[in-house]
Amino acid sequence: MYECKDGVCYLKPSTNCKNHMICQNRSYREDGLCLDCYNIFGEWRSHQKTEVIMKEDNDKCPVCEEDDKTVIYRMNCDHFVCIDCFKKIYYGIEVKKPQIKLGSNLEDYKEQLDRFEKMQNIYILSSDKFSSKCFECCIYKYI
């Protein structure tokens, strides 16, 4: 990105996006968000927060039900999901199929492949959980 002043253009310095642990992007904006995060979480949206907040302790993700995961609070409530589920919900990014590498441990690869297949099944069978509207809020609202 360039910034022009008095007819001279300069390369504008960049920093990591406020949500870098999720989006992996750099930011050139004054608010510290990359363009992807601004379009999804910007102040012009109706989200309560613009920056992702990680929960202090690891916990069980209510979507994929994996234990001891780093979890992040959702953007409109106090419920949380793991990083992989957050990426799927807000960015549409799914867990990538693992690639076996020469010299890698076959057991680790099988474990990663099992996790990938489990996540693919969750994406298909639990599509209602992958909405930006929190399914837990909807459940508790009707109880």
3D architecture notes:
The protein has 143 residues and is α+β, with helices and mostly antiparallel strands. It folds into two domains: 1-50, no CATH class; 53-143, no CATH class. The protein is 34% helix and 13% strand. It is built from five helices and six strands, in the order βββαβαββααα. The chain has helices at residues 20-23, 35-41, 83-91, 106-125, 135-142; strands spanning 2-5, 8-11, 15-16, 26-27, 71-73, 80-82. The chain has a two-stranded antiparallel sheet. A two-stranded antiparallel sheet has the order 3-4. The protein has a two-stranded antiparallel sheet with strand order 5-6. A hairpin with a 2-residue loop joins strand 1 and strand 2. The mean pLDDT is 83.
Summarize this, please?
The protein has helices at 20-23, 35-41, 83-91, 106-125, 135-142; strands at 2-5, 8-11, 15-16, 26-27, 71-73, 80-82.
Structural class: alpha+beta
- Using the alpha-carbon principal axes, give the shape: globular
Overall helicity: 25-40%
Number of individual domains:
2
Strand order of the largest sheet: 1-2
Secondary-structure element sequence?
A: EEEHEHEEHHH
Largest sheet: 2 strands, antiparallel
Radius of gyration from CA coordinates:
18 Å
Oligomer: single chain
How many helices? The count is 5
Number of strands: 6
| Overall pLDDT score | 83
Provide tags for this entry.
alpha+beta; 143 residues; single chain; globular; 6 strands
